[in-house]
Amino acid sequence: MKNEIGSLGATELLELIFVYLAEVSSRRNYDEVIELLASMGKALSSADRCSVWIVSDDKRTIKTKVAQGIAPIELPIDSGIVGESIVNGTRYIIDDVYKDERFNRYIDEKTGYTTRSMMVIPMYDYNENVIGAFQVINRQGNGGIFDNRDMERLTLATTYAAETIVSAKLTQEIEETQREVVFTMGAVGESRSKETGNHVKRVAEYSKLLALKYGLSKKEAELLKQASPMHDIGKVAIPDSILNKNGRFNEDERKIMDTHAQLGFDILQGSERKLLKAAAIVAHQHHEKYDGSGYPQGLIGEDIHIYGRITAIADVFDALGSDRVYKKAWDDERIIELFKEEKGKHFDPTLLDIFFENIEQFYAIRDTFKDEYKYVEEKINKTRNIKVLGAYGTKAKGFGTTSFSLNKTDVIDAGNLLEALGEESIHVKNIWLTHQHLDHIVDIAYIIDNYFGIRKDTINILGTKGTIDAIKKHFLNDEVWPDFSKIKLPNGEHVVKYTEIELGHEYKISENESIRAFDTEHTDSSCGYIYTREDSSILITADTGDLDSAIEEIEKDNSIQTVVLECSFPNELENLAIESKHLTPKMLFESLKNVKRKDFQLYINHIKPTFILQIAQEIEENKGFFTPKLVKDGDFLQF
């Protein structure tokens, strides 16, 4: 679910943040908290090292509060790339620091460490003054280059660290840090749906104002303000294809989307902390309606907690007044008219009267926290990536099965071509199959059926002899589905032809692209692929219960920059995994202990959707020195 806030999958990202949140919550020492946040920044951005720089009180120097791998350092405030970032308040992604004249080589020369790539983000206090910077160096995997996804992830750690530093200077307490962590975690849910962090800020402020006007104590109103940003945290488990759909949901999509309230509650309910208990209530009940027509429980009237009734007004008011991927913002007159119609239906009538009586104060909050978009240059390698059309190990609502788009005409496997490509599937000419199981071949049938009349080119189905024979005998056989090798397109070309591939042979796709297959162990004839473009390669195994052949390829081919491996079942189903020749997190990382190379980016796919959260947690527990990322439908994998 690579659904890369990108590189880290949304679920994996949430799991990682919660691990650090638990650690931060247990610490009372300011220095320990900063060190934890530096480790989180390193993990989130897949960096080798992370340093936290602080501006001195006289603003003449900068010094490291945390400097992984080196002793503390103090330098003039304008020194090097970090100094320029702090002085100018600018974010930087540097691919090769030795080609940048601003780079201060003093530290490398002193320590013997070689810095290659770098990313720097300035930290701000409440008054937008720069107080320091987060610096990560030497991206692990991804060709050693940081990109905009890494920048987004590091921003999370930077935000937490800035708040921690400010809080420590003011009170030497970390409660504000914990609250800011919760706030930013709420923003993670919104950022996945392409909304801004200002949405959760506005909802928080609206909720506090309405709570005070209703008569809640200052302490309880402040608690609700801190908890309300978590109202949509369950969105991290909703597939991007649904969350960011440009248009209305169909019935099935709406059912999936509506699960986010229960998912958010499930994530938060286990905590004994007052803040997270309040957040669990808000997440669970902010879509309940006063007349009982809401979800997920259908609560009526004051059976809905006051936190849920308040947040419902705050959330809907902001959602209607903001641009979203599926609509333009409503004008105020239209919003007020709807609210009047929903009095006693959607909204608590008493709270709504209070809202109307104080509407100018709500407008003032909205104006204070307007959405502002800052352009950050995206340095993603546009020429060496493939798109994930389907990432999962079985079909489920909102989850596609295995398929990768290499370019406009070539795909690996055909589990999710029709939904992902639509009419663009008419351009697919070569389907490179890993094996013949249904979740890897099913859409061969459907892209032919749906676009038979406008397709111009023959589909070349490529695979091992065993795979080709199985498809001819059991699938496209005039019994299960027509034998399309006998049928011609309207232009006279055959619909389908078959090509048996030779393991180890390099097949030329274009002037700068090639692909070769290697043997894998599964319950049927199977292979993995190494796809190469411009001398850089990505390895994909698909289904396998044994990584020996993949490891052999990785060790002998240094062009392999990215590796995609399967992990289908949680550790508790190891017997099933062994029998079906799949992997669990424990089995996967036990095998990878034998890998000598550590300079490739590891992605994990083919997870069964039912076990996403469990497998994500077990991957985190078993990963060792790797920084794996869970693949989602729609992700782009760089290599």
Q: Sheet with the most strands?
A: 7 strands, mixed
> Structural class per helix/strand content?
alpha/beta
Helix share of residues? Answer: 25-40%
Query: What share of the residues does DSSP label as strand, in percent?
Result: 15-25%
Cα-atom radius of gyration: 26 Å
Which geometry do the CA atoms define?
globular
Reported by name, the CATH topology of the largest domain is Metallo-beta-lactamase, Chain A
- The top level CATH class name of the largest domain: Alpha Beta
The CATH superfamily of the largest domain bears the name Ribonuclease Z/Hydroxyacylglutathione hydrolase-like
Low-confidence stretches: 1-6, 187-196, 373-382
End-to-end separation in angstroms reads 20 Å
Please characterize this protein's 3D structure.
The structure is a single chain. With 639 residues, this protein is an alpha/beta fold. It folds into three domains: 28-173, GAF domain (Beta-Lactamase, 2-Layer Sandwich), CATH 3.30.450.40; 186-368, Hypothetical protein af1432 (Orthogonal Bundle); 385-628, Metallo-beta-lactamase, Chain A, CATH 3.60.15.10. Helix content is 40%, strand content 16%. The strands form three sheets. It has a seven-stranded mixed sheet with strand order 12-11-10-9-8-7-20. Strand 16, helix 21 and strand 17 form a beta-alpha-beta unit. The radius of gyration is 26 Å and the shape is globular. 48% of the residues are buried. Residues 1-6, 187-196 and 373-382 have low confidence and may be disordered. Pfam families: GAF, HD_5, PDEase_II.
